[in-house]
Every structure is written in C-alpha cells, then in structure tokens.
Write a structure and sequence with these properties.
Number of helices: 12
Shape: globular
Distance between the termini: 67 Å
Mean pLDDT: 87
Strand order of the largest sheet: 11-10-9-7-5-4-3-12
Number of strands: 12
Radius of gyration: 22 Å
CATH class: Alpha Beta
CATH superfamily: Glycosidases
Largest sheet: 8 strands, parallel
Order of helices and strands: HEEEHHEHHEEHHEEHEHEHEHEH
Length: 375
C-alpha cells in the first residue's frame, strides 16, 4: 500500500514539473508576451458613418499614430555592426511608448515575401498574434497592411530584396492575385472579429518605379481591390482601407467609379516629393486626396520626412513639409499614421540607430500626438 501511495505521489510530482517547464519555456518565447487585455483599455469597434470614422457609441474617432515594421524583420534584422538585434522580443515597450505619446493606432506592415517564406499559419502565430494582442492590451487600434509595392503578378519594387535580411531571401514586395486572396482569406478570418483591427488590403499599387506612371491606373486597379474587399467580407465587417494608383498617392478618379463597399476608408500616402517640384503643395494635396474628403472618408496611412537623406521621395524638412502638411490634415480633421517608427533600413525612420532615441521626425510626431486626440 505504501509503495502505491509513493508511486502516485511520484507521478504527480513529475507531472507538476513538466507543467512548470512548459510554462517557463512559453513565457520566454517571443510570441508569448503578456497580452492580457487591460480593462482600462477597452476598445470600441469602429465603422464608417458618412465622412467620419465612429465608435460603437457614434462618437467620431480621429485615428493618429505610427507605423511599425514587419515583426519578422524586427526579430531577424541585424544592427549597423552586423549583430542580430531581435527587437521583436522587446517590442512591447514600443507599444507602451507610442501609447504614452498620444497615439491611438499603429499600422503593422506585413511583407508578403516573409509571410509566405515563414508559412502563413506559422507567421501569424509567431509574429502577428503578439502584435495584435499587444495593441489591444494598450488600447490601440491596429491596421494590418499587406505591404506590397507594385502590380499583382507584374512589376514590383525589389530594393528590399537586396538590402534586408540577406539570410532570408524573398521577393519582399511581390504578390500575385492568388497570393493576395490567400493572405486575406486567412488574416480576415483570424482577426476579423476583433474590434480593434482594420485591414489595409493593398499597400502601394503602381505600374513601375515612377509616380507618374499610368500603366496600372484606377481602371486596372479597382477590379483587383474589389476582389480583395469581397474576400475580407466573407469573414469580417471591420473597416477596410482601400488604396489608389501611383503608390496610392492619387485618388483623383475615385468619384467616377468608387469602391462598392460602404464600410471603407480611402487611403493616401504622401511624402515631401509626392508633389513634383514647382507645383504648389497645397494645390497638389487638394488634387490628389483633399478634394475627396468632401464626399468620402480618407486616411493618410503613410507620411513622413527625413532631412538630408539620399532618398529623394522622403527628403524634406519640418518647415518645408511636415508642419504645413499636418496643419493641412488638422484643418480637415483627417486621420494619419506616420511612417515608420523603427530603424534602420526603412525610410524615413523615427528612431536613431540605438532604436530608442527619437530623431527630428520622431520628435515632431511626438509633439503633434501630444496635442491631444479626439478619441
């Protein structure tokens, strides 16, 4: 009898040890952040009402925040000394920091090259789930961006294939129609019932690396995005963000043939040299997206600047671009998401190479966020 009792106690002790080991292992995993929702950060679901984004109580919500880098990149990217930084394991501090700055939204970029390289389900469980949960924990809305640049099945921007994550080769910005539908089937099904999630279905459509190119114009783009809209709507009625041609910098043709979805916000991406030199900035903004705000809701889900950079698209100053642009958005009460919070390879970054210190762009964003949110 004593032997039986001893064996029972021994088995219980072994099982308890196994459970403890598993819990310890999971707690150290990058995908196991403390993501228990804070009762003080309860999020109200958003929808489109007329020209505004509103919450469940019908109150207008002006989204303002920052873009975060693809979480796979945050984990695998090397720093300037060639050492793997694994900032992904520390990204919870970034959510807390931008929330404290006054943000109420983050936009998370998902490069199709890395999503399909890792494998859809594995990528979502390992990388996107923690980001979605951390946003909820901090009372932040989150925009998931299918971060392609180019034309489905055709030209795509390949710069990052050479400059990012040499040990993980992928066509970072490439997609075709089947890939995009597969992505949104899985992602909208997984997150489509979460109140704080919005879907930006196609980051920057363009025919080639030329903002004036009309090879992939509104007439060609619209049917493809309607396909993606229909895909998301099989799983979710959350807000969709719909883009336009020329790196989603031109919404001028929307009034002639708008998207059919009623719970959709039109997207514009604007940088210092989106408006060609010699053209009046305000007139250029009016022409490309400002005029549309009289009839449809609009969000600027990317904007930014980097004074002195070699990248001509984003090279600009506070006085020459950022200040007048944010004043313009304030006058129209438009939502915005600054691009991009994390260094070091993407332009324009808000942090210095130490991944902590806010640079000129970051300081400007912080000051504008501190003005206050209408949320």
């Amino acid at each position: 009898m004593l032997k039986i009792i001893f064996l029972i106690v021994l088995v219980i002790a072994i099982l308890a040890s196994v459970v403890l080991i598993v819990k310890t292992k999971n707690s150290n995993s990058p995908s196991s952040f403390n993501t228990k929702a804070n009762s003080k950060n309860i999020i109200s679901k958003l929808s489109v009402s007329g020209l505004q984004i509103v919450n469940e109580e019908g109150k207008a919500v002006r989204l303002r925040g920052v873009n975060f880098e693809d979480p796979f990149v945050l984990e695998k990217e090397v720093d300037l000394k060639g050492v793997v930084n694994n900032h992904f394991s520390k990204v919870d501090t970034d959510f807390e920091r931008v929330k404290a700055m006054g943000a109420n939204v983050v936009r998370i970029t998902v490069y199709p090259g890395y999503y399909f390289l890792v494998g859809g389900d594995k990528y979502l469980v390992t990388y996107l789930d923690p980001m979605i949960n951390l946003a909820e924990q901090n009372g932040l809305y989150v925009i998931i961006s299918y971060h392609v640049i180019g034309q489905p099945g055709g030209w795509y921007e390949s710069d990052s294939d050479l400059t990012m994550l040499h040990n993980y080769p992928a066509k970072v910005h490439y997609t075709d129609s089947d890939m995009a539908v597969a992505f949104w089937n899985k992602v909208s099904d997984r997150y489509g019932q979460k109140k704080h999630v919005l879907f930006e279905i196609y980051n920057e459509p363009t025919g080639k690396m030329d903002p004036t190119d009309d090879a992939y114009n509104w007439a060609a783009l619209r049917p493809f995005e309607e396909l993606l809209i229909a895909t998301v709507r099989q799983h979710s009625n959350n807000i969709i963000l719909g883009s336009g041609p020329k790196y989603t910098s031109d919404l001028s043709e929307v009034p002639t043939n708008p998207y059919s979805d009623a719970n959709l916000v039109y997207v514009a991406h604007i940088y210092p040299n989106t408006i060609p030199k010699g053209e009046d900035q305000i007139a250029g903004w009016d022409k490309r997206f400002g005029f549309l705000t009289k009839t449809y809701p609009v969000i600027i889900s990317e904007w930014g600047f980097h004074n002195g950079t070699k990248d001509p698209t984003v090279n600009g100053t506070v006085e020459g671009f950022a200040q007048p642009f944010l004043d313009y958005l304030d006058q129209k009460n438009l939502p915005w998401v600054a691009y991009v919070y994390h260094p070091p390879d993407d332009e324009p970054p808000m942090l210095e190479s130490d991944w902590t210190t806010l640079n000129e762009f970051g300081q400007f964003v912080k000051k504008r966020l501190e003005i206050g949110s209408t949320n």
